[in-house]
Write a structure and sequence with these properties.
The structure holds 3 protein chains of 3 kinds.
Chain A lengths: L7 E11 L3 E7 L9 E6 L3 E6 L2 E3 L2 E7 L3 H8 L5 E8 L5 H4 L3 E7 L4 H12 L6 E8 L8 H10 L1 E6 L8 E2 L18 E6 L2 H13 L7 E4 L15 E2 L2 E2 H4 L2 E3 H4 L5
Parallel strand pairs in A: 8-9, 8-12, 9-10, 10-11, 12-13
Antiparallel strand pairs in A: 1-2, 1-7, 2-6, 3-4, 3-7, 5-6, 13-16, 14-15
Chain B lengths: L6 H6 L2 E3 L5 E6 L10 H11 L6 E2 L5 E7 L3 H7 L1 H11 L6 E2 L2 E2 L17 E2 L13 H12 L8 E4 L13 E11 L9 H9 L4 E4 L4 E4 L9 H5 L5 E13 L12 E7 L1 H8 L2 H8 L9 H8 L1 H8 L10 E2 L31
Parallel strand pairs in B: 7-8, 8-9
Antiparallel strand pairs in B: 1-2, 2-4, 3-4, 5-6, 9-12, 10-11, 12-13, 13-14
Chain C lengths: L1 E4 L1 H14 L1 E8 L10 E6 L17 H4 L3 E7 L4 E3 L7 E5 L1 H14 L8 H9 E6 L10 H4 L9 E5 L5 E5 L12 E2 L22 H9 L5 H5 L5 H5 L6 E8 L2 E11 L20 H20 L10 H5 L6 H23 L1
Parallel strand pairs in C: 2-6, 6-7, 7-8
Antiparallel strand pairs in C: 1-9, 1-10, 2-3, 4-5, 4-12, 8-9, 11-12
The chains are: A alpha/beta, B alpha+beta, C alpha+beta.
Amino acid sequence: MNNPLQPQACEIISVKKQGGHEFTFRVKSDAKPLPGQFMQLSLPKIGECPISVSGYGEGWLEFTIRSVGEVTNIIFEKQPGDLLFLRGPYGKGWPIEGIKGKNVVVVSGGTGLAPVRELLNMCADEQGFSKSTTLICGFKDETGIVFSDDLDRWKTKFRTIYALDKDEKSGWRVGMVTKFIKEVDFKGLGDDYALIVVGPPIMMKYACQEALACGAKEENMWLSFERKMSCAIGKCGHCRIDETYVCLDGPVFPYKVAKNLVD
Amino acid sequence: MNRDINIKKTRLNCFRQSKVPGVFMLQMRVPGGMVDAKYLEMIEHISKTWGDGNFHFGTRQTFDICGIKYDSIPQVNEYIEDYICGVDAELCNVDMNKIAGEPREWDPKSGYPTIGARNITACIGNYHCICGNINTFELARKIENLIFPSHYHIKINIVGCPNDCNKAHLCDFGIIGCAKIEYHPERCVGCGLCAKKCEHGATRVLSLNPKTGKIDKDPCCCVGCAECVKACPTSAWTREPTDFYKVIIGGRTGRQTPRLGKMFLNWATEETVLSVLANWQKFSAWVMDYKPEYLHGGHLIDRAGYKKFKEIMLDGVTLNPECLVAEDVFWAETEYRSNYNVKPLETHHAAGPQKA
Amino acid sequence: MSYVLSSERADALFSELKKQYRIFAPKRFKAQGRYSDTDIIRYAEAASLEEIVFDEKSDYPAKEVISPIQQALFFFTEDEYRASKGNTRPILLFARPCDINSQHIQAKIYAGNGGYVDMYYERMRETVKFVLMECPSSDDTCFCVSMGTNKTDDYAMAIRVDNDGSVKFKVCDEALKPFFSQSTVAEYEPKFVKENETKVTLPDIPNKEVLGKLKEHPMWKEYNGRCISCGACTIACSTCTCFTTKDIAYGDNPEVGERRRVTSSCQIDGFSTVAGGASYRNTAGDRMRFKMLHKFHDYKARFGDSHMCVGCGRCIHRCPEFITITNALNKMCNAVEEIKAEKGGAEK
């Protein structure tokens, strides 16, 4: 009998530290996730959790793991050649067909950048993928910054607003991402844009409120949810909101659906 | 009133002197504080016929009827025959024709033969209470015949659980109903509610182990209250079928040296408790050189010393394997007067058989 | 075909069945209740017919046999997660109609939702044949008739123990028929409870707008003060499926261990807590609302055919705070009507 909970061993190709707390693991895998999908990552002794695919290529995948508490020691032990365990990909990612050819506006908070990283790369690298691209990207403080190489590269490719919540940093602005949403001229973009909001729940809530106040239209907005999951296949019940299972029906939701998903 | 009354005799008969000359209060024993409600009619009748129409709950759970004139005592004694026979002789299996185990014929119309051992009090226990681990009044009824009738003064309080609402720590023998707890880890969902309950309401012996998602327990400090059993949503904690008891000794109130009792036995079974208490008469008699005095049990333990007490009380007793016994007891009295205890040697009390 | 067996013959039959089947049934665990000198009736492997409690509803549901509170999913070493083998022997599971119907609900989630089949559930379910325990009557917490779960024809065999100790069987499963080759044929058709003392009305939530208003309705606040979020209701629930997985490293060799799944409950603090620490539904009232709406709206909205409650009443029976799902349901119906009336009024 097929066991959908069975994790597959994947060899670590490289481990890279991101900012103060995050590590990006590149592992060998033939899985072909879509941008915004997630996988279940197992660290023996620690357990299994859902994690966004932060990058992928021919025969490899990348995950960015926050090293907190118990996980830290395990992560420090891992070297190229060691194994991680994966299953997936799961869920529905970004609606690529709906986004393609439009003005893309991404608002991200903290590690919320991981699930949109590949989408931003498409905007940066695929000729004509987006009509224009704007990234408003915030972090709590300097140690929270992830994907700094990408941030530097994206800066040269499209419009970016990078901000830290409170701290000063050269070339960066100070304040929550919500503060900078009004700098996007949604009316000027007509109906021809996709606004993507990813980050902690409270940030997504206020960012969406602000975007709507700035004239963004509900039907052009998309969000990605983070929920506790023990199975990712609609069994464990942790991620359910009403009749919706975030693992199966999300984690990416159109705003019009997401706004009714009240916990 | 001008009448020659031997108030010591009336007291032995369970009629207590009042501040009004010739007026007495009857104290009726209610072992474990529980009797058939039908007896309330008797109380009413006594009170309205011979008393002043009122009734008081004695602090030791006796039915107290005040305002009884000395001349009415024989009639009252005749009337309470049914009560004494029904409650003590039948319910508690008391042999009324013995005092402290020695044959002494009892006239059923003569009222209570002794006051000696005071009424055994009890909380409602598991007959009703959700915290109770044991049936308190059934235990009281089993103990009553070990200590009554007797001239030796002993106060026993029974409580259903270590919350000790009925103050087992403030009497000569406090008996606390406890449960040994079994853990069924395969039913445990790791919610940690038991650990929270144990921390807030007991001895903090439980903790949720984040590595296993199960509960770790420090069994030596468990008081056996079973709060974990009550809290558990999955029945992962259950009581062992055997009832266990802690026995607390030497607690008291009083004008001289009030103190909380200390633990004598832990995890004793009912059989152990009963066989230990069966030695009480022997111990009291020995301490007082076989001459009863108006002195309650805690003072007798002081006089003999804990080690002597232990020796006599455990004599011939087979302890259940789980039972733990205090090697020593470290009392902590409230001394109203500093160095109350430091006094001329000749005023010290003696224990045990004395030379004539 | 139906049969009647004397109590002795039924015992002998039980022994024969045990040679081929593991028999799980509700058993009495003396003095293992929440309060002292109270019993617990729960599912366990039965050694004899006599051990099975027929005349009282079990405190815990039959689901514990198929989706146990705890089960090992994998054993791990440094380089592999190896799936546990699980039970392979066929099982006879003694169950009432509510418990049998609840398996149709659990299966929608475990063996259907999202197109994924949970192997652990499915392989256990495949070993199970139901023995229908006829309900002689219902207790005052049962409301199976209102939920339409008082009847079932999904059983391999039905059983009734009569007052004189004789036992009647209706045998449907071909594989069980040989066990009765020497038995006396009798007229017996299992009866089902036709009416419960407790009846409920089910709410009609027509759209998302009413649902949204119901979530905000003040009725849920009552439970902030009453519900202690212990989760006893969901543990006792015949249909609840939620679980959490955990990797346990073995104490004396932490390089090996097992991935375990353990029942979890939306009522218990921490159910929704994500790695970053955020959590949802942080009051008892919110959690009660989440449970009630799952049982009487959300499940049906997703899977269509029935509500996620079989009216077994075990949640009522096990709640230490005397909260009844039936009264909560009545309040919910009233709230829905109130919301609809307001809306109607507003539209005029």
